[in-house]
Amino acid sequence: MKATASDGARTAAPGDGPDPLEARLKAYEGRPSAVAGRGKDPVNAPMIRHWCEAMGDTNPAYEGPDAIAPPAMLQAWTMGGLSGHTGRTEAYDELLALLDEAGCTSVVATDCEQEYLRPLRPGDEVTFDTVIETVSGRKTTKLGTGYFITTRTDVRVAGDLAGTHRFRVLKYAPARRKAPGKARARRPRPVVNRDNAGFWAGVAEHRLLIQRCTACGTLRHPWLPGCNACGCLDWDTVEASGEGSVYSYVVMHHPPFPAFEPPYAVGLIELAEGVRMVSNVVGVPYGKVRIGLPVRVEFLRYEDDEGALDLPVFRVVEGEG
Ligand code: ZN
After folding, report:
1. How far is the CA of 223 from the centre of ligand 1 (A)?
2. How close is the Cα of 198 to the center of ligand 1, in Å?
3. Which domain covers residue 274, as residue numbers?
4. Are 133 and 254 part of one and the same domain?
C-alpha cells in the first residue's frame, strides 16, 4: 500500500488560511508517536486462545503445534495495557492537546486498516514503530467539526515487517444542539404494528384492552402474536377495569429527552387483572411515588404540531400518595 491520504491533501499556501490551525496540525505529519516499542509478551498460545474464544473464531490454523496467530490480532501484540506503551513519544499527546485547546475536545475512533505481510507465530517477539501519518483538513461530520488523525504502526519480528496497522480517529468539537424551548418537542409516537394495533385502537376509544388467549385464557401485555403459556395464536381481548398499583418505578433525571421535563416518574403498573404495563405515574410529585401505591388509568391528551395524541397514564388514587 503506497498511497497515503496525505497524497490528496491540499497544500496550504500562505494567506490561504481560513483555518490557521491546520498548518500547525499538519506539522505533526511524519512525527513518530512510538519508537522501537516492544510487545509486552511474545506471541503466545494463551492470548491466541482467548482472542479466538472472544471472537468465536474456530479456524484450526490457530491451534496446535503449527499454529499461527490470527492476522487480525496484529495490534493486540503491541498493546500497552494499563501500564502503557513502551517507546511512546510526546508528539501524539501534544497534537491532541493542541486540538483540545482549539475546542476539539471529543474523540471517536472511526476506522482501522491492516495489512499482513507474514504470519506471526507463538514465540515471535514483536517490535513496532508508530508514526502520525496524516492529519486531515477541517471536516464537518454529523458529530461535529474536527480533524481526522491517522497513525500507522509498523509491526516487525526480528527486523522484518510483519504487518501494518492504520488507526484513524476524529478529534472534534461536538455539534451544538438546537436551543431548547422555542418549539416544543413533539412527544414520541407509539410504534403501531400488526401485533399491537388493537391496543392502540382501544386507547383511541379510551379503553385499556388486554389480550387474552382463547385456548388457555392467559392474559398478556404487551400485545404479542402468540400465547407465552400455550403457544396458541388465537386471542380476543378483555377491557381492563383501569385499577392497578405501582409494581415498580424509576424517577428519570438524566439523560433528558426532548418533550419530557425531568424529573418524572415512570411506573411499572400492575393492573387488577394481573398484567403489567409501563406508563407515567401522575397526580403526585415524582418523589412521592412508591411501590404499592394504588393508581387508576386516565387518558391524557397531548397536543403538539403533529396533532393530538391520547395516552394512558396512571393517576394516584385520591387520598393516597
Ligand atoms: Zn394460551
Report:
1. 13
2. 18
3. 197-316
4. no
